[in-house]
Write a structure and sequence with these properties.
The structure holds 2 protein chains of 2 kinds. By secondary structure, chain A is of the alpha/beta class. Helices cover 32% and strands 24% of the residues of chain A. Chain A has a single domain, classed as Rossmann fold, CATH 3.40.50. In chain A, the strands form 2 sheets. In chain A, strands 6-7-8-3-9-10 form a 6-stranded mixed sheet, sandwiched between helices. In chain A, strands 2-1-4-5 form a 4-stranded antiparallel sheet, with helices on one face. In chain A, helix 3 packs across helix 4, helix 3 packs parallel to helix 5 and helix 4 packs across helix 5. The longest helix of chain A is centred in the middle third of the chain and has 14 residues. By secondary structure, chain B is mostly helical. Chain B has a domain of 212 residues. Chain B is built from 14 helices and 2 strands. In chain B, a hairpin with a 3-residue loop joins strand 1 and strand 2. In chain B, helix 4 packs antiparallel against helix 10. The radius of gyration of chain B is 20 Å and the shape is globular. Classes of the chains: A alpha/beta, B mainly alpha.
Chain lengths: 254, 329
């Protein structure tokens, strides 16, 4: 395996009862790149995602992250290795305030947080950084609001802030733009570009104009298999890709 | 951490103030509770107040698990009841001083919580609740089948209240009251601290969204087990104290209806509120006491109150007040 591959899979397969969702996927993600995983509905993108983050165990195949076989690891351990995911359904802690949502992620730097005898004041050194991250995604006006009361787009923004709080080496974003308005999309796009500077990003995304402008490399999945791989220009001209999307406008964006 | 934004920290002063105002309100409430505890034995029957305090502590412990850990245990009677047996047995047969008997009961409940919790947290939701119930029923049958330890149907009666630290006689209700009030206040403050600790923050995050907490690198099952053990231990503290107060440990304490009662107290008072379980326990215990003349009809009244509570104000008494004043209680 070459030096600059941060995450790779070989023969990754997931079978559900009588149905193969992901079938022999070989994926290589270059260190420092923004890599997109696209494909029509039901192509196995989210399953693939869940396999990479160990939220699902693969039926067959191997996952290597930073030269280390992580096929048998648990989800929490993956996160500790610096491979952090976001979720398709906005994943916030609804009863905690926006600031606390981010601070919970920052708390991981303290190591294990089993100190039930210590006051919350032990966490106040993290407040400034939490507020900085909240501000970076444009939520500073809502810092004290319970996260459950945020609009959908803002929940997504909060989720990204929470993920970034871990300062992960590699980010896995599951449809970061899903359900967002145009303004939100522009802000999140700029944010992703900004944070990609010193890390690797693998994202599942439906919004092809976002993919076109943001991603260095694109892997197209269809029926659980890799259909094509390359940069946007080459992938969008691939007749198999066009066929898979059946004129849903790969070359034109949404 | 990356340099995401260079803009100044927004409205830090406002943030600090809102945090402070809730904290100040809570501190005032703690002072109010302490004052109430100080005058209660002079205006009310001390044994009744002690009963309320024991059940309030039990409900507080339960609420720690359900309200802040998101884990519905339907078997908390096991920890309450077994601690009550251990404290009664050791005070009576080993001649332990009351504080040691209570500590031992608490420790046994925590250890039991460690074993039962480790088994139960492997499943979630209703399955978790059913496993805790099944394990608690095992504790009940163990108690029923080992009369040499538990006294079987008779329970352990005439438990000596003994002398605190071997010095201060607790035979007088008032003297015992101060010990119980101190235990209650200590338990309440500990739970308050747990809820607001770094550990408590992670527990609340897991309660709100477990997969997300895991994806942040938290080993959720370890936190769930830890909060389970804390809750079981504190439930045990309540049960062990109760055995000394009433000089009795019986099958009632370990029966599943006791598990149900603590759920009721917590829901009536306000799930996930700091002070709700105290109010809930006071309401239910007072009802049982003052409506005792109705016999088994008390259960019907309890059922009606429970249904009314769930239909009319799901947040419970304190939960509703908390919404009114827009501050966490």
């Amino acid at each position: 395996m070459s030096e600059d591959t941060i995450l790779s899979t070989s023969g990754l397969t997931k079978e559900f009862a009588g149905f193969t969702a992901v079938n022999g996927v070989d994926l290589k993600v270059r260190r420092g790149s923004i890599h997109a995983l696209i494909g029509p509905n039901g192509a196995g993108k989210t399953t693939c995602f869940n396999l990479l983050t160990k939220f699902l165990p693969p039926t067959r195949g191997q996952i290597v992250y930073n030269g280390r076989d992580i096929t048998g690891e648990k989800p929490a351990e993956i996160a500790r290795l610096g491979l952090v995911r976001s979720f398709q359904i906005s994943a916030v802690f609804p009863q905690l305030s926006v600031k606390t949502n981010v601070r919970v992620a920052l708390q991981r730097k303290r190591g294990d947080n089993f100190d039930f005898w210590r006051s919350e004041r032990a966490l106040s050194p993290l407040d400034a950084e939490a507020l900085r991250l909240v501000d970076a995604v444009g939520l500073s006006a809502f810092a004290e609001l319970p996260a459950g009361e945020l609009s959908y787009g803002r929940k997504r923004a909060l989720e990204i802030a929470t993920t970034l709080a871990l300062d992960p080496e590699m980010l896995l974003l599951d449809e970061p733009m899903a359900g967002m308005g145009r303004e939100d999309i522009e802000r999140i796009e700029a944010l992703i570009r900004k944070v990609s500077a010193n890390r690797t990003i693998l994202m599942v995304e439906h919004n092809l104009s976002v993919v076109a402008s943001l991603c260095d490399r694109i892997t197209v999945l269809a029926r659980g298999q890799v259909l094509a791989e390359g940069d946007y220009a080459s992938v969008s001209k691939d007749p198999r890709v066009v066929e898979a999307y059946i004129g849903s406008g790969v070359g034109h964006g949404h | 951490m990356t340099d995401l934004a260079s803009s100044a920290t927004p409205s830090a002063a406002v943030v600090a103030e809102t945090d402070d105002s809730a904290a100040r309100l809570h501190r005032n409430l703690f002072i109010a509770i302490a004052v109430l505890l100080a005058i209660a034995p002079f205006v009310a029957y001390p044994v009744f107040v002690m009963k309320v305090l024991c059940f309030a502590l039990f409900a507080l412990a339960f609420n720690l698990l359900l309200g802040y850990g998101g884990l519905l245990s339907f078997g908390h009677a096991a920890y309450f009841g077994m601690a009550s047996y251990v404290s009664a047995y050791t005070a009576k047969n080993w001649g332990l001083t009351p504080e040691l008997a209570i500590l031992l009961g608490t420790a046994v409940a925590a250890a039991l919580g460690l074993v039962f919790g480790a088994l139960a947290i492997r499943r979630q939701g209703i399955y978790f609740a059913m496993i805790t119930l099944a394990l608690a029923q095992m504790a009940f049958f163990f108690s029923l089948q080992t009369p040499r330890f538990t006294g079987g149907e008779d329970g352990i009666q005439a438990v000596p209240r003994g002398k605190l630290f071997g010095l201060i006689s607790l035979a007088d209700d008032r003297a015992l009251y101060w010990l119980v009030a101190a235990i209650f206040m200590g338990g309440l403050l500990l739970i308050y601290r747990i809820i607001h600790s770094p550990f408590g923050q992670v527990c609340k995050a897991i309660r709100d969204n477990e997969p997300r907490a895991i994806s942040l690198g938290y080993r959720a099952s370890q936190y769930k087990l830890a909060v389970f053990v804390l809750s079981a231990g504190l439930a045990g503290l309540a049960g062990a104290t109760k055995a000394i107060v009433f000089q009795l440990a019986s099958l009632t304490d370990v029966y599943w209806t006791m598990s149900g009662e603590v759920v009721l107290m917590t829901l009536v008072g306000g799930l996930g509120t700091v002070f709700g379980p105290i109010v809930g326990a006071a309401v239910i215990v007072a009802m049982q006491n003052y409506l005792a003349g109705l016999g088994s009809w008390v259960l019907v009244v309890q059922g009606v109150i429970f249904v009314a509570c769930v239909l009319l104000f799901r947040e419970g008494i304190v939960g509703v007040i908390s919404k009114w004043i827009k501050k966490p209680l």
